Amino acid sequence: MGRGKLVIQRIDNTTSRQVTFSKRRSGLIKKARELSILCDAQVGLIIFSSTGKLYEFANTNMRSVIERYHNTHDCVLQPIPADDLKDQLLANEITDLKRNGGLTRQENIELYQKLHIVKQENSDLRKKLNGTYKEHQAYQQPHKSISVQSDRYIPVRLQLSQPQPLNIDASARTTTKLGLQLH
């Protein structure tokens, strides 16, 4: 089964973005290492994360790769002042926070709506449960006790049982029809 096509755009969820960055960074470094081994190429890879952290790979020495680049292009890279880099990173972070703030607000609204639906469902279930409980209570009314009037006290225990085949005398026949047995 194939994977669906992934739309290449910025990932808004910071956790998902960080996980994707970490996995893809590892994959990119692995590919650079494989290219250097398979093709005997001099490879240098420099990656800066959105937080400004540096990740690099070089199959030889990174300085020699950069010097070779300078010599090949016959140019000198001007170092970016640290303050400008920090300002740019902060501006990017502010933009991200503004975008995420709007998304967070929308997520909060959606979660509130779902919570309202769940509360309504709980209320409906409670009403159904209360109705069922009241019906159950109506069937559970106290049973009237049966008393035996006689001069002698005789303990009587009644027990419910399944009807038995009738192989006994007539007096027992009437009690088994009721499903009661005297012990």
TrEMBL record:
Location of the protein in the cell: Nucleus
Keywords: DNA-binding, Nucleus, Transcription, Transcription regulation
Matches recorded under Pfam families: SRF-TF
Gene3D superfamilies per record: Transcription factor, MADS-box
MADS-box domain segment(s): 1-61
GO biological process: positive regulation of transcription by RNA polymerase II
InterPro entries linked to this entry: MADS-box/MEF2_TF, MEF2-like_N, TF_MADSbox, TF_MADSbox_sf
Gene Ontology cellular-component annotations: nucleus
Top-level lineage group: Eukaryota
Molecular function GO terms recorded: protein dimerization activity; RNA polymerase II transcription regulatory region sequence-specific DNA binding
Entry keyword Transcription regulation: yes
Name listed for the protein in its UniProt record: MADS-box domain-containing protein
Naturally occurring in which organism (per UniProt): Chenopodium quinoa
Highest classification ranks of the organism: Eukaryota, Viridiplantae, Streptophyta, Embryophyta, Tracheophyta
